[in-house]
Amino acid sequence: MLIYYLPLTLAFALALDLVFGDPPNALHPTAWMGSVIAFGKRHSPVRGAVAQFVYGALVIIFGAGAFALIAYFGLNAIRAWNEIAFILASALILKTTFTLRGLIRAARDVQRALAANHLIEARRLVAWHLVSRNTRELDAPHVTSATVESVAENLADSIVAPLFFFAILGLPGALAYRFINTADAMIGYHGATEYLGKFAARLDDVLNFIPSRVAGLLIVIGALFARCDARDAWRVMMRDHSITASPNAGYPMSAMAGALNVQLEKIGNYKLGDATREFAPSVISQSLRVMIAGAAIWILLLVISTIQLSNYLTK
Q1: Distance between CA 89 and CA 55 in Å, rounded?
Q2: Fewest Cβ atoms closer than 10 Å to its Cβ: which of 48, 107, 180, 196?
Q3: φ, ψ for residue 264 (rounded to 5)?
Q4: What is the DSSP string of 111-136?
């Protein structure tokens, strides 16, 4: 059974996500990671840009390493006891590194609030679940845009990337990625924590170089299955992917803008795509269909490739 460890673990993890969603924070490794990062931020003993950068790098290196090593030795101990328990434990942990059901639910919550003309609630939900920008002054089209942008970007950050690192580095790799990505979300931005989080931000850029571009391609292909504009998804991605400050986020977001024939805008930062249609809450549903199609293609490719690899190794 261990020969098929990768595809079995991936399949069980996906089933856990779709059936049960995310565990409570008290049992969620990503929440534990957030607590470690917050502790490091609060107890930073140093001042100055260079010292902050070094301290922040040490927090990331030791934090990511600790979670990876705990998973490695803990799962090896379970493996020595029972192979089935090893695969189930691996699936349970892997599930916490990605989320599909949670992303769908968060986006649909915003869509329902917008459809009911509850703009204040929609602003609160999009800020709580999906984006870090200030949403208090956003109108309905910009709340919709923020939601669609998050759906596209999370295909890369929350689905493609963790499963990519699981496929090539196992669970330690997926957990290390999740720690770095969480740190980037918490402290990797301009402002008071800019130098503290700069190492995390740059490392996250490196780690997401391949997954973000894969996610962009998956959105182009997913648009075909979702009956959206795959041709424009490719055109806009090739034209607008470099407009965002992030070297990676522009790929899936601009592809989604083209697939839906809308213009995605973060006020004062970027505009992606062409405003060939008006925003409506239904655009969120369309973005989810494209994202789900892309995620399904990615997971299917991983399962097939890992089965093929397992069969090759048994020869």
Answers
A1: 33
A2: 48
A3: -90, 130
A4: HHHHHTT-HHHHHHHHHHHT--S--T
